[in-house]
Amino acid sequence: MKILELFKFMIEQKSETPYDGGLLDFIESYLDDFKAVRIDVNGVKNLFIYKKFCDGEHLCFAGHVDVVPAGEGWDSYPYKATERDGYIYGRGTQDMKSGVAAFVQAAKEVKDFKGTLSLLLTSDEEGEGIYGTLEVLKYLKEKSMLPDVGVVAEPTCEEVFGDAIKVGRRGSINGYITIKGKQGHAAYPQKAINPINLLAPRLSSMAGVDLDNGDEFFAPSKFVITDIRAGMQVTNVTPNELKMMFNVRNTTLTSQKEVKEFVAKSLEGLDYELKLTQGSYPFKTDTDTKLVRNIDRAIENITGIKPKHSTAGGTSDARHLAPFGVDVVEFGVINDTIHAVNERTTANEVESLYEVFKSLINMWE
User: Fold this and answer.
1) What is the CATH T-level fold of the domain 3-169+282-363, as seen in this structure?
2) Separation of CA 254 from chain center
3) What is the mean pLDDT of the chain?
4) What's the whole-model pTM score?
5) 172-180 and 344-345: which strand pairing?
6) Which residues are tagged catalytic?
7) Which pLDDT tens digit goes with each residue over 129-149?
8) CB 60 within 8 A of CB 322
9) How far apart are CA 125 and CA 127, in angstroms?
């Protein structure tokens, strides 16, 4: 297969989370000179496939074959790669079958490598993500097979192909606040304690507030309120309690400790409960590492563009690699229609991404 043929084939295999659409079996057979390990857990299919060419560093390309549901309103069938107006349309074109096709084809064609080359693939990145990449990394650690460096082929470019890579990601702290009051009749507010009234004058000093100043790589950690609810949906009863939810996409400068302190200061004097959970932790790969220098050079070789180093956006499976001591970056096609109706990319981007990955593999020493 050529790269575009492989890419279109992948688009046309319906693989909505947590199903792989048969793609992991296909990739295992397609890379028939690589050794394959299946780590399937609780209905999630995972594939680790590798080839040791010689002693040296272990470079791993990582990604997911699952996609979010297509939704309604497409101009073409979402599970057929449809070419129109200079684009290729289909669910997963950007997120992230373009990236998977590019590194699978690059691995298929590699003749030599100064170390071990591997691919780590899961069918559950778009879902809960509990039994995917993380389970594979646990297995690899037990077997002393963890990669030294990793490239996650998520879509990262902003305006033109080659303009940005991710060298880190913010973490995600979720918060749940319950403010206690005393239910009462709306006609006798003096006999009740209305938690809405307690929160209202403090809300402006909480919503959208930056918890740190950020730095050259990270935007500030912002306190983002996502839900407020109270009451019984009637007009004559004041509520007994108010529940508020929030999210902080945190930098390395802010942790749960700082979030707790901010809430305590903001709600001082109130009777409240706070629960925090951490969906992911922030990380940043040193931009002076061999991995970052080499992928910068590979991108510039193919596109003529020196990419900027970014940590913007949500989370990805790169968040799992970093805590295992793996230097990791992300690079892929332009990100502007992921999860949207009529998701699309261009043939040129897919071909260029494949060429970048080939260049990276060939320059590794």
Assistant:
1) Aminopeptidase (3.40.630)
2) 20
3) 97
4) 0.89
5) unpaired
6) 66, 125
7) 889 999 999 999 999 999 999
8) no
9) 5
